[in-house]
Amino acid sequence: MYVTPCTTGQKQPTGKLNVISACTSRQKPFAALYNIRMTTVPAEIHGQRYISLATFRKSGVAVSTPIWFAEDDNKLYFMTNSKSGKCKRVRNNPQVKIAPCTIRGKIKGPEFSATVRILPPEEFARARQAINAKYWLARVPFLWRNTDTYIEITPA
Q: Which residues pair with 92 in a beta bridge?
């Protein structure tokens, strides 16, 4: 089967076979068809080792923290201790900013708005698998014995 480009969105004969065109001008994307907003992880975040997570205090002051993260199904996941400052700030305000950064937290690219959600224990396994697949050091249980919370980041 040959695919030929077209401008009309119709099937084009090539002499040997009727071919499906590469045009999809008459088809609406799934999200537009059902009026669903599909979010994707920004291209600047893909392939990064660290992101800067800016959470907000009750006073509105941003606190940036470099974190390990994993991508899965257009969402980002990270792990932390439930008693940490970032977890407390997330409970108060789920709006955050994310940006690619270095291990020391120096921002290397544009900042993006996002929303976070603390995962219930039954959803920990998926986040844990994604993080373990990306960072081999995350598999060492002794280092992460105080990690008891997983958080999902959905880019806006």
A: none
Q: What is the pTM of this model?
A: 0.71
> Taking Cα atoms as reference points, which of 99, 92, 146, 97 lies closest to residue 118?
92
Question: Could you report the per-residue pLDDT of 52-86, keeping only the tens digit for each?
Answer: 999 999 999 999 999 999 998 899 999 999 999 99
- Residue 10: Cβ within 10 Å count: 11
Indicate the SS3 state at residue 100.
strand
As a whole number of angstroms, the distance between CA 128 and CA 112 comes to 24
**Residue indicated by tokens 């280092």:** 143
pLDDT digits (tens, 9 = 90+) for 80-115: 999 999 999 999 999 999 999 999 999 999 999 999
Beta strands in 27-139, from DSSP E residues, in sequence order: 50-56, 62-68, 70-72, 75-80, 95-100, 112-118
Query: In which domain, by residue range, is 32 found?
Result: 1-37
Indicate if 76 and 151 belong to the same structural domain: yes
In a domain, 70, yes or no: yes
Same domain, 32 and 75: no
